[in-house]
Write a structure and sequence with these properties.
16 strands, about 400 residues, nine-stranded mixed sheet, 15 helices, alpha/beta, about 35% helix
Length: about 400
């Protein structure tokens, strides 16, 4: 049994709960945030996607809940339905495995408010949800926030943007004066720091080392003019036998157009549009998770907080605006120690910019092209042999070519 979480001050019941789900060693953000959280310090933490930020605040919060008081003691805010539910489900798993008598509930906008009111009658001690619905229930007198001693803003850069600031501020003003604040995000801008002035003497945690991509992700790119990118994506999906590919475009307005073109070519696709209602978004994610669709097309805003297991490919139709966004995208593959692959479709004039991203995040790019149903190195001639892109090829005489595998031809 590992005692690394115990050494941070986490109780044995929580440590054993984590062990049951295969979490043995704290991540860097957890090493830094958990002790400060247990000491009652306010925390503003920045760490890349997929580095364990959720447990960095959940564990201290759970440990500090007073089980003798049947009242709301902690509120966790998230900007999207998907992220809120992922947080809630992780909280449920930890509590169940630890066999702790702590109650929690989710309060998400768009869900049946009457059922949520019924859940509040059980006096949950931890609430996870959207600021709008929480404020609505507070105004109806169904939820008291004065007893809240821990407030989390997950994806704080988005929660404190122009669209959400006013509503989130109402929650901030309603909690207890001595409330402990946990503000976490993959990116935290100077404007966000300025708007977080309500956090007194915060412990600032910024893991700059996280600006390095995970080593178990291979980075490929294909040169394609803008009007050719859909056709290239169509061919790659079949050549590489993509089971679960997350496709990124820069503008939400382009999602529908991209979907229509891919469906025309007979591909099984779904879209994740930020303007879609909760049921539409849920169906798209469920179909993608269950393997009913091969490709899920999304914008960066729509995909915030997504944590879908076993994504084998992240594909950039549009080049992201900077290397940090690139990291956020590719962080959704290669999780839990598995191998992943990031593919960028770039116009000739975008190659230089992609190269700059690679230098900043310290990854090696592999230029590729398609010939006769094979993906090969850009400067090499095609071979008939197919290989797994994540296993280094055996050394062979007279050639050092690499071929990405396929069981299909275009």
């Amino acid at each position: 049994m590992s005692e690394k979480f115990l050494n941070l001050g986490i109780h044995a019941s929580l440590e054993q709960s984590l062990e049951k789900i295969g979490i043995i060693e704290p991540t860097p953000i957890q090493y830094k945030a958990i002790p400060d959280g247990l000491e009652g310090k306010n925390i503003i933490g920045q760490s890349a996607t997929g580095t364990g930020k959720t447990l960095a605040y959940l564990l201290p919060i759970i440990q500090k809940i007073d089980i003798t008081k049947r009242e709301a003691q902690a509120v966790i805010l998230a900007p999207t339905y998907e992220l809120a539910m992922q947080i809630y489900h992780q909280l449920e798993v930890v509590l169940k495995n630890a066999e702790l008598n702590i109650t929690c509930t989710s309060l998400i906008g768009g869900a049946n408010i009457a059922r949520q009111i019924d859940k509040l009658k059980t006096k949950p001690q931890i609430v996870v949800g959207s600021a709008g619905r929480i404020v609505e229930l507070q105004k109806k007198g169904k939820l008291k926030l004065q007893t809240v001693k821990s407030l989390v803003l997950d994806e704080v850069d988005r929660l404190l943007d122009d669209q959400n600031l006013a509503t989130v501020s109402l929650v901030v003003k309603s909690v207890a004066r001595d409330c402990q604040h946990f503000l976490f995000s993959a990116t935290i801008s100077p404007r966000t720091i300025n708007r977080a002035e309500f956090v007194k003497e915060p412990s600032l945690i910024s893991l700059k080392d996280d600006v390095v991509a995970k080593p178990n992700i291979e980075h490929l790119y294909f040169i394609a003019d803008y009007r050719e990118k859909i056709e290239v994506l169509r061919k790659l999906t079949r050549i590489l036998n993509v089971n679960r590919g997350l496709v990124f475009v820069n503008k939400s307005d382009d999602i529908v157009t991209t979907l229509e073109k891919l469906k025309f070519h007979g591909l099984k696709v779904a879209g994740l549009n930020g303007s879609a209602n909760k049921l539409e978004r849920k169906k798209a994610i469920d179909d993608f998770t269950k393997g009913k669709v091969q490709l899920l097309v999304a914008s960066d805003i729509a995909a915030r907080g997504l944590d879908i297991p076993d994504i084998d490919f992240v594909i950039n139709i549009d080049l992201p605006e900077d290397e940090k966004v690139y990291l956020h995208r590719i962080g959704r593959t290669g999780r839990a120690g598995k191998f992943g692959c990031a593919i960028s479709l770039v116009a000739p004039k975008e190659v230089l910019k992609l190269g700059e991203y690679a230098k900043k995040i310290k990854v090696q790019l592999h230029p590729k092209k398609m010939i006769n149903g094979n993906v090969i190195d850009f400067l090499n001639k095609p071979k008939t042999e197919h290989r797994n892109p994540f296993i280094k090829p055996k050394q062979e005489k007279k050639t050092n070519e690499k071929v990405v595998p396929t069981n299909k031809r275009v």
